[in-house]
Every structure is written in structure tokens, then in C-alpha cells.
Amino acid sequence: MFRRLLAREVCLSVFLLIVLGGCVPALTLSTLSASLLTQFDSIDVDESVGLTLPEAQAGAAGLTEATFSRLDMDGNGILTRAELEAGAGTVPGAFTATVDVPGIRLNLVGMNELADGTVRVLSTATSGHFLHLTDIGASGAEESSTVEFSGMDLSRFYTIGAAESTGDGGFLLVGRYHSNGEDGASNQVYLRKTDGAGALVWEFDTMEEAEADDVQLIPLRNGDYLLTAGTTALRLFRIAPDGSQQWRVDFESEVADEDDVRIAERTDGTIEIDTHGGPYADRLLAALTPDGTLIPESVAGVEVEPETWTTLNADGSTFVFNASVSIDGNGALVSWTFSRHVELGSALWESSGLSVTLGGIVSSDELDGVLRTIASTIFTPLLSRDGQSAFLVGTADDGPFVRKVDYATGEDRWLRRALALPPTGSVVETEDGGLIVAGDLPVILDGVTTQVIRIVKINANGDGAALQPH
Q1: Over the chain, what is the mean pLDDT?
Q2: Contact 136/155 with Cβ under 8 angstroms?
Q3: Which of 24, 172, 307, 326 matches a 20 to 30 Å C-alpha distance to 200?
Q4: Three-state secondary structure along the chain?
Q5: Tens digit of pLDDT for each residue in 221-236?
């Protein structure tokens, strides 16, 4: 299940997805990676840290730039031993994979694990003409196909912000559509359910305007969903599995950025909302009963430091990300801590974070934007299925990292530097206790910048492709 709408949106001038000829044959790169590894010293003619495209082609006749880019996990134009070891699939329960369609720039819109353990990655093109499904098995082998949707009003200008495969084999789509009404043009939030063949099952239009990346869809324990909307003031809808609206609650307090809204369902079904997710935003704390009734005196203004982000947990505790910023002539140094609180003023534990150096950042507007980026990539803690751990994924000065901390004590269970980690777009814990990170990765093919999707699977022990102890 996705927790919030991914930051990128995909425009659909026509909400009709073109079938590109059915299934694409499964592709694995493990044999190629293993072959290049055995030849590494002999074909690395400049004796550098890795293989350039011409050097790799000397060891693999017919190697294309597109295939080379699939092995080049950090996109720097060099194949290192670590990348080839990762491609060879030498770590049990772990893999790396790349989703690409020749000539098309892809955007990640969803990822989830199917009942048989297959990881399904949902993506679509910037031009928005198809939805691409890629199923990845335990070995990293891929099988791709496309899907065509029907039953949509093609006169509307649609965007897809997120998509999800459902347990019945269908899809949930969330985004906006462009509407011209009496008051002029607007972008209204929609939620649509289709079957596995793309036929429309039901649709729900909020009639509320919002940006695509300002919408959240939160799954609840009984199968319902919470859907947020509203350009400034928060609108909250509870939607049943059949698409019917159970209730709607409007909060009139202005919210600076709805992507900062944190919502959690407690174990008793109570829904708590925290609208302070970032700097300089008015804060609203509220609690609702399962039937949408506001709990008295649950709305309160709370002052926190400008560089503080919070996230709510189902047991009533709160995760807090707090950034400390120091600025000199060379730029800004951001250090952060990660802690768990019973209330904001009562810490159960606190762990030191990692540092990020920001060269050339001088203005407060630039710093504010960078802090939001750091918080969104680092501070989306994912609780483990057993409730015993929390995962953090992000980037520090010495590169991308994955961190697993003990939920009760805050102590690190493991901390890994990740060579191959993509910019964070979606993080999912799998049934076997592993972690999958997926994100969009810009690459250059034939001199043209395009975008593929990189997926990294880490096993339950924190081992994976091109991972090292931090």
C-alpha cells in the first residue's frame, strides 16, 4: 500500500493507455555481469576504478549503451566491481533491477508486493500514454507488460499521481483531472478503481482542487481508505472498498503544504492528524473517531522548532526528525537526530543522525527547500511488519544509506551505505523481512537524457547488492 502520493505526476492528454505489443521477454543481466567480472583486469585498459562503455564492449561484443546503463547503478558512466557483483546476484534474498522502455522517459507511480512474493512496479511515461507493469521475481528476473484503461471521460485532462495493484488483481489510481466549470478551470482530485483488464469498476471525485503531490491515500485496517484533498485547508474523506463516501471532515486551518500532513490510524481505530510536517507551517493537531466525529479539545496549536518534522505511530508515540543547520562561507552543514516520543516534549530515545553538506546554499528560501528535500527523503520512517523496527532511507555526505533501528530502544540493528540506491520514491517491506527501495534515475542514452526506474532489494539481514557497513 502506498502511504502518500509520489511527488511526481504524469500528464495524460488522453486517458487511454496504448498497448505496446503485449509482454516483453524477461531479461536478466547476471550472466553478463559475471562475465565482465572475470575479465575485469584484462579489459580495464586504463587501470581505473571501473570499466567505461568501450572497455565493457571489449569484453562483451554487442553490448549496447542501454544495457550498459542498466548495470551502471549510480549512473556515472563507469562500471565498478561492486556494481558488477551486484548485477551477478551473489547475495541471497537481494537483487537490483532496472525498468526501462527504449526511447521513453519513465516515472515511478507505485510499487507493492503480490501474494506470491513478486514485486510489482507501476510506472508511466512523462507523455502519459501507457501504464507499464513490471513484475520482479526473487532472483531479479523481470517480466513486463502494459495495460489499457477504458470507461474514462476522455474530454478531461488527467494526471496520475500514484497507482497500486489491489488484491483482486485490479488497480487503484489517484490524481487530478482538469475541469472547466462556471468559476473557471480547476484541477480536481479523483480516486478510481479498475479491474485487471483496465475496465472501470467505480470512481470517486472529491470536487476539491489540489496539486497531485498534495494528495494522500491512507489504507485503514478494515479495508477503507482515507483520502486528503484541498489546496490550502485540509479536506479528509473516508472511502469504502466499493468507492462510496463514508464521511467527510473539513479543517479550516490553513495548511502550508499538504504533503507535510501526517495521518495515522491508532489500534482502536482513532484517526490522528498532524499538519506540521515542515518549517514555517501552522500546526494543527486533531483526532477523529472511526465515524469521523472530532474528539473534543483534540485541536490545538503547538510550537515546535522550524526545522522539525514529525510522523505519528499507531501506538500513540511520535517520530521526530530534527535538523541542526550551521552556515559558513562554504555553504550549510545539516546534522540531524531521529527520536521517538510519547509526546513531543518527552523523548523515549534519541539517536544521532548523519550529516549532509550543502555547498553554495546561502538564501533562506534555498535552505528551506533543501531542508524539505532532506526531510522527505530521509524522514519517511517505515515501521516493520512485526512492529519491532523502523527503517530510514536517505542520503548523507558519504552517499546513500539504509538504516534499521530498534523501535523500543532506538539502537541501530544495522546501518549500510548503499552504492546502488536510487533517489527514494517508494519503500516497501516484503513478507520475508526484506526491504525494497525504488526510485526514478536519470541516465544518458545515445547522448540524450532520459529516465529509468531502479529497484534495490535488501534482505532481512541488511545485506544486498553493493551494500557496505556504514
Answers
A1: 76
A2: no
A3: 24
A4: CCCCCCCCCEEECCCCCCCCCCCEEEECCHHHHHHHHHHHHHHCCCCCCCECHHHHHHHCCCCCHHHHHHHCCCCCCCECHHHHHHHCCCCCCCEEEEECECCECEEEEEEEECCCCCEEEEEEECCCCCEEEEEECCCCCEEEEEECCCCCCCCCEEEEEEEEECCCCCEEEEEEEEEEECCEEEEEEEEEEECCCCCEEEEEEEEEECCHHHCCEEECCCCCEEEEECCCEEEEEEECCCCCEEEEEEEEEECCCHHHCEEEECCCCCEEEECCCCCCCCCCEEEECCCCCECCCCCECCCCCCCEEEEECCCCCEEEEEEEEEEECCEEEEEEEEEEEEECCEEEEEEEEEEEEEECCCCHHHHHHHHHHHHHHHCCCEECCCCCEEEEEEEECCEEEEEEEECCCCCEEEEEEECCCCCCCEEEECCCCCEEEEEEEEEEECCEEEEEEEEEEECCCCCECCEEEC
A5: 899 999 987 666 778 9
Name the pTM for this structure.
Answer: 0.74
Task: Please return the burial class of 2, using the count of CB atoms within 10 Å of its CB with bins 0-12, 13-18 and 19+.
Answer: buried
CB contact burial 387-400 (16+ within 10 A = b; e otherwise) = eebbbbbbbbeeeb
Q: Which residues contact 463 (CB under 8 A, 6 or more apart)?
A: 91, 92, 93, 94
Residue 322's beta-bridge partner residues? 308, 337
Report how far residue 392's alpha carbon sits from residue 412's, in angstroms, rounded to the nearest whole number: 11
Other beta carbons within 10 angstroms of residue 130's beta carbon come to: 21
Of 174, 172, 146, 170, the C-alpha closest to 158 is 174
Express each pLDDT in 438-469 by its tens digit. Answer: 888 877 766 777 888 888 888 888 877 556 65
Q: pLDDT per residue over 11-63, tens digit each?
A: 332 222 223 233 333 335 667 887 888 888 889 888 777 899 899 998 888 78
Owner of C-alpha cell 496520475: 160
